[in-house]
Fold:
Amino acid sequence: MTLAPQQGRALIVVGALASVFTALAFRLFDLHVLQHKELSALAQANREQVVHRQGRRGSILDVNGNLLADSLSVRIVTADATITAPQASAIAEKLAPLLGTDVDSLTRKLSGQSRYIRLNPRVKLDEDAVQKIRAMKLKGIYFEDQFVRSYPNGPLASHVIGFVDAEHRGVQGIEASMEDYLQGQAGYEVIERDRKGREIRALRTEDLGPQDGLNVVLTVDQVIQHIAEQELERAMEQFKPQSGAIIVSRPKTGEILAMSSRPTFDPTEMDASSADARRNRCVSDVAEPGSTFKIVVCSGALNEGIVTLGDQFDCENGAFMYAGRVLHDAHPFGVLSVEEILFHSSNIGAAKVGLRMGPARLYEYVRRYGFGHKTDIALPGEVSGIAHPLARWNSLSITRIPMGHEIAVTPLQMLMALNTIANKGVRMKPMIVKSIVSEDGVTVLQYQPRSVGPVISAHTSELMTTALRKVVGPEGTAPKAAVQGFDVAGKTGTAQKVENGQYVRKYYSSFIGYFPASNPEISILVSLDDPVGGAYYGGSVAGPVFRAVAEKVAEYLGMVPQTPPTEVTKVS
Structure:
């Protein structure tokens, strides 16, 4: 009888132990069988870290090998998954002052779910800050060598070069259009750490090295780009237009030597720039070209044999009634030859040449010269402009389009049309990328000048050059564009701007020209949107800017002045 209570207690103890061991067995089964895969992955994650290695983004160089954009190696502070939420705040308080950020945002980064966090992707740490962070010996904080984009010339050619985003991807300009060549391929290392977070080098399991991007060499010449930007800046200060553009090119090849736009921006200080300032107006803005467009109707009519340079037209003393509307000239003219229509820039004369030519043939030359579609230059953001099909022409179009109304073009389109005349009638595709090269200088891809096709004959080109040379003469509209020692062929443009569907007393002033006229090496476009101060004619405003750029470019390139200058051809 006395053994019964003891047996009962023993059974209770045995039962309790059995229950404990059963629970432990189930827990072990749960951990080792049911949750094995999940817990193994977690253990692996706590022990292993994937360290990404960024490939170096290729450089952008000018035609002479000068750096326009580069990638610099910097120390990046990174954090891994060993940091717990309670630790994040304390670590953030220590790091925030050295990383140039605030404690709250850094705490949120460190408390996130990501196992790999870059804490200073845009902040370049100096060596003093690196040593201070090392001395803190913060668990889960490491250093990596990464790259940041550098633009050593600040805003110089910024619209051409473009910029990259926080992930080192091209956003605008050459950075975007040549992204496939410039971008490097990222690599990674899988490393293991002990319980104290120290790397166990002997246990490195994988290593895929990064691949550097290729370098892009442009046709742009850094010195000529500087000349264009300097002169455009002076014009902006003097005439205070809303915007401006200068393009310098080689007519025979289509190579762009400089492309400048205002307002501008500095890619090293993106936060200080607006979207408007970042727009490359040379390819993305359109406007009615005004009288520069007279080269299209006159060259087309000459090429078709419809007129000769000596054919005369009555310019009605400055007022011509057609289709119920009066067309005016800036100055009253009587009878003018086709050559005089060009260098006096008569709207009425151009309209009458257009009437003789007819809508179908005029539209054909509008399209031949490339208006209404993109030039396909290797820059993003280019627009097609506006060249309405014949079905959308009205009764006035045949007289308005010849003088550069009812059509909208980009500055680049207008310069390439002039280049066609300078290049014996052959239109070239604009070229801004010269080659793709590896870091060790091996050429991977070489671009060549490309002809789009003939637009006018070489003879017509010579006739047009004869007339356009007189534009910068004493009787022409742009004597201020004349360049000492060189014959210049060019054309002025003064187009009224359209606002809310109405022409207003604001003007788009431009000058396009090439020199030496007999063997063109350089062509230049200057355009200013709404200059103020009373002067707005293209010859008075854009002409002097053209001359300043041309003189400096000629000196830089060592172009030999003509001695004596070529005589102007007389037309019977």
